[in-house]
Amino acid sequence: MQKEDIIQKLREQGFRITKQRRMLIDIILGEECSCCKEIYYKASKIDSTIGTATVYRMINTLEDIGAISRNTMYKIAFDEECPEDCTMKKECQIELEDGTMMQLTPHQWEQIVASGLQTCGYTTAGQGVKNVMIPS
């Protein structure tokens, strides 16, 4: 999601778009932050009046509207719908020990991860994989 999409979703949920909220969105969009404390530290350098509770509430709100995922370490989630056969999706390349190369779509990779997690006992049959991030 881009900044304006996030602001629009917040407005639709009844949130006022304050200077502090805009600043927090800018920090998350512009930098890789690994935790709320890091976001707070960067925000407090810009606005010393911001409180930790404001940062935590904003992070929870952004997660609730689907703008961020804690799994991606507070990077803005790009939620662009693309059909299964879309050529714009990145493929994951796997090389086996014997030199065999495989190309997997994100959907195929999600299926493999889900199967592996279930086989190893990390998930139950009713739990599906919501998202697998493949770095660019």
- Average pLDDT across residues? 76
User: What is the percent of helical residues?
Assistant: 40-55%
Low-confidence parts lasting 5 or more residues at pLDDT below 50? 72-89
3D shape:
elongated
Termini separation comes to: 17 Å
The total strand number stands at: 2
Q: Quickly give the structural class.
A: mainly alpha
- Report the total helices: 5
Radius of gyration: 18 Å
Main beta-sheet strand count, sense and barrel state: 2 strands, antiparallel
Annotate the secondary structure layout.
Elements: H1 3-12, H2 19-30, H3 36-46, H4 52-64, E1 92-95, E2 101-104, H5 106-119
Antiparallel strand pairs: 1-2
Brief description of this entry?
This protein is mainly α and 136 residues long.
Key phrases:
136 residues, mainly alpha, two-stranded antiparallel ribbon, 5 helices, 44% helix
Characterise this structure.
- The chain has a two-stranded antiparallel ribbon.
- 44% of the residues lie in helices and 6% in strands.
- The protein has helices spanning 3-12, 19-30, 36-46, 52-64, 106-119; strands at 92-95, 101-104.
